[in-house]
Amino acid sequence: MTPKYKIEDKIESVQKFFTRRICGLEKLSYSERLNILGLETLNGRRVIFDLILCYKYLHGLVEINIVILYVFTSHLELEVTE
Predict the structure, then answer these.
(1) pLDDT tier for residue 22 given thresholds of 50, 70 and 90
(2) At a CB cut-off of 8 Å and minimum separation 6, what does 3 contact?
(3) Is the dihedral of CA 54, 1, 82, 43 positive or negative?
(4) pLDDT higher than 60, residue 56
């Protein structure tokens, strides 16, 4: 597991911890608690915001310098910068 995933797991565990503390939701599963509260998982939120950004970029609503976001290698591979 890479450090990125460890950080994501820690952040997600905070959301799990606090949703479990809400009165009446203690015995429900994590997905049930999220559904009742109208929340998404960390990964779910990231996907939603990525799709929103793609839509805005494709429709000219934001200007993004693609060179800053991605590193192109000489082997025709694409690496995402973090």
Answers:
(1) very high
(2) none
(3) positive
(4) yes
Q: Are 8 and 19 in contact (CB under 8 A)?
A: no
| Amino acid in position 39 | L
Structure tokens at 6: 């460890």
Return the residue matching tokens 């905070």.
Answer: 14
Question: Residue 33 CB: number of other CB atoms within 10 A?
Answer: 20
Predicted TM-score of the model (pTM): 0.63
Q: Mention every residue, 6+ apart, whose C-beta is less than 8 A from residue 25.
A: 19, 32, 33, 36, 37
Q: How far apart are CA 43 and CA 6, in angstroms?
A: 13
